[in-house]
Design goal:
The protein is of the alpha+beta class and about 160 residues long. It is about 35% helix and about 35% strand.
């Protein structure tokens, strides 16, 4: 199979996965296809039309056992995953967006409990998208971390 045929097959598989998840109203289907997201236990749901990604409480996510607090890398992964999932869910994508930059601000210690993230696409161009994400635990108005991310959108007809 040529690389062009492989890409067409991959695009077709991703489109089928996204359209099936949208039709069923089950964004978690997309996360279940990603091994790292499965390891983190990520799941997603729609709440009042908003896509919310949840990282359930799990001992293997602890970075500081003294507090105990979640490892910063897992919180960063939650933020990045929420941004990518939002792009896949809201826009017609031919491939998974590639991260250009991800800037994370850790605002408070993430306790060992369920954590949630909500992403908002602030700009979606032909080639690049900007997304802001907030992660929280008990209260969406008290984020544990925020992120600004830029993604390369591959698969435009001009490429």
């Amino acid at each position: 199979m040529s690389s062009k045929e492989e890409r067409a097959s991959t695009v077709s598989a991703l489109a089928a996965l996204v359209s099936g998840a949208r039709a069923a109203g089950e964004p978690s289907r997309l996360l279940n296809a990603i091994p790292y997201a499965r390891m983190l236990g990520l799941r997603a749901e729609l709440a009042d039309g908003a896509l919310i990604v949840c990282m359930p409480r799990s001992e293997h996510l602890v970075g500081n056992p003294v507090l105990p607090a979640l490892h910063g890398g897992t919180v960063g992964a939650l933020l990045e995953s929420a941004a990518i999932l939002e792009l896949l869910w809201q826009k017609d994508s031919e491939s998974v967006p590639k991260t250009i930059t991800l800037t994370v601000d850790f605002l408070r210690s993430a306790r060992l409990q369920d954590s949630f993230a909500r992403a908002v696409i602030t700009k979606h161009g032909r080639r690049v998208a900007n997304v802001q994400v907030r992660a929280y635990q008990d209260n969406p108005d008290k984020p544990i971390a925020t992120a600004n991310a830029h993604f390369l959108l591959r698969g435009s007809s001009s490429e």
